[in-house]
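Limitations
The structure tokens in this dataset are predictions for the assembled complex, not deposited experimental models. Users should treat interface geometry with appropriate caution, especially where small molecules or nucleic acid strands are included. An illustrative entry is reproduced here so readers can see what is and is not provided.
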Amino acid sequence: MSNGGSTSQHNGAGENYLTAGYGLKSWLLTTDHKRIAILYLITISIFFALGGLFAVLIRLELLTPAGDLFSSDTYNKLFTMHGLVMIFFFLIPSIPAVVLLGGVDTGWTFYAPYSEAYSNTAVGLTAIGVFITGFSSILTGLNFIVTIHKMRAPGLTWFRLPLFVWAHYATSLIMLLGTPVVAISILLVFLERVFGIGIFDPALGGDPVLFQHLFWFYSHPAVYIMILPSMGVISEIITCFSRKRIFGYSFIAFSSLAIAILGFLVWGHHMFVSSQSIYAGMVFSILTMMVAIPSAVKVFNWTATMYKGTIIYQTPMLYVFGFLGLFTVGGLTGLFLGTLGLDVHVHDTYFVVAHFHYIMVGGAIMGYLGGLHYWWPKITGRMYSEAWAKLSAVIIFIGFNLTFFPQFLVGYLGMPRRYHVYPPEFQIYHVLSTAGASVLAVGYLFPLVYLLWSLAYGEKAGPNPWQAKGLEWTIPSPPPTYNFDVTPVVTEEAYDYESMPREAQFVIEP
Amino acid sequence: MLKDIPFLPQAASAMAGRVDLLYLFLIAVSVFFFVLVATLVFIFAIRYRKREGGADPTPIHGSLGLELLWTIIPFCLSMVMFGWGAVLYFNMFSPPEDAQNIYVVGKQWMWKIQHPEGNREIDELHVPLGASVRLIMTSEDVIHSFYVPAFRMKMDVVPGRYTSTWFKATKIGKYHLFCAEYCGTKHSEMVGSVYVMDPVEYEDWLNRSTTATKSMAEVGGELFTQLGCQTCHFEQSGGRGPSLHNLYDTPVRLMSGETVKADDGYLRQAILDPAGQVVEGYLPIMPTYKTQVDEEDVLKLIAYIKSLALPQKMSAHPAEENQ
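Predicted assembly:
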């Protein structure tokens, strides 16, 4: 990694954060947020590859209706590990690897009493892993909130903040308020398993539905932890490549907060057939409809941002197009699941699987890849191959839709999720899905190659290859350890692209 | 008309067509919004692409009118979805008065079904065409979920309580029964078939399949005697336990002062955890029968206790959904 920014490339800037030290210790014990971010990036990329490998194995098994590739136990572990790794180690990124020691087969939801009394896999270790992860989430959230409140540059008022920061602020609120609940739930599971106190297990007088309440009270808001940062990325990119300020700044900012708050009130929509009261179901359904509104507002505002702009088809923008399409499908199908009478039929079928992959993969990962391509020159000081990057973006978009769209259809036909073997009439949809997954895998491998290639051979990026607004683009790429020589003073709104001189609008031609 | 659309599953219950109609409504709304967004993105991307002689970007801060428009219209549409869905949902869990009960016990990895007439089946459910059938379900181990796609019907089967749902089959045939809640190794093999039969054939099937010659209540009565329940629960009051005659579905005052209804869930708890809800005026001396009866036995005992109620009480009031 560290030869990515040899010192000679900056106009007298000297050292940058990548060259500030080469030893292992200088990385692992660093307090530089940029170095920590690099460690995050490497770690979550490895976990993403691992989670992806599990997905490939799952898709291969599902090519035929019979369970001919793996045993049921192995298959059950595969989908559990796929979910756990992707959610807790990629989408809500964090470090510990305890989950990889034993293998778990509970589904990522760990529903009691199965997870407690009937599963003899490493549920305990996994619980400890999630518990530790929880603390890192809480501290991360706290760190972001305090930083945003106290460490803004002079002149950077709340309504001059990049929307990426607003999105992180909302995310951090969820992490801070939601994570303790999951920690408490895990503690209760521990008490029940070790001391036999009846909390969730009906054999001990406990209530298994209570576990679902606690689980989803955290895990539904956690979905927004995964998607909100990507929404922030979209706001950054779409303005830069439309050369235009964002449409409806305050509506996008406040819709993030609205999502964070309403997101805490909708957990019961995972439990419409769990035997909770049908009137509770109605309350959760109506609140679920409400949480869809701020997401819709964002999509409309992003679309309107392009109106009368100057649209440039650079790779990050292609990911924005992909995001808008896929997130819209994901959001709209969320309404199907929030609609009570319809959810009874599609709950726990492939319809749900397709829906949340459109949000998580189509939304969150499109945002992640868009952001990675947008800030790559800033992080490494190098440009990647635009042609290869565009090609991959297109392959990913096609592969994604081929993988997950058939799952909506087979879900409504009644194919339940977490099925190792299935009736033969569903096979055609699984074959399509597996074919799509192969395309998607190729699309994901390309960036790995051309991004690593760019570290050594990429063109030097200069401080601001996109002529982007925002403080990070005013300093060299890669930035020096202490970022700014002089504390910057902000005097303008976010995304004030229209005031830039026309000839400076875009340096690198696509 | 709906059944000709290839992406809809078989529709074999009174609810199925109504769910499909709602589904098509949501698809229509979704297609409209997706096409709207996609078209706008497409048009803007072409029309305003960077090119020689293109206009400078125009600064636009936003528009309150537009924001209101695209807040209010989606809100109203989502409320239509909510209301429509809630009505169906309410119907799905409100069985008609004349529904006949069938009892389901889930366990890893099979469905055990008992008909009040005494017939028992495993991984198969035979039901008559056109009759309302209410399922009363529980699990012996973990959470399962009883899912019949052709009926658009699903309900979790939860250990420690009774859950219930109902359907009215409208088409003769054989349909998939799936477990929809992940329940361990052979989750995907916890499947079976629902057979919808002509009512005459169904009667014939009930008589023909001789898994039991006695009704559930009769078997429950024998079990009642075997377990010695009658040594405390007399026909008249005066025993060490309260009389169980005419008890089903009536209010019971507890030692704690609260009043509960003697429904299936209450009776189940009274057998398995008697100390939990002791009837006023009696001592908490009944031991638990947890180790002597399984969930299927409990259902038989309850069927017997129901049969001790006045005839008009017997099937008139379905038990409240158990919380």
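Some entries come with short summary sentences. For this one: The two ends of chain A are 26 Å apart (CA to CA).
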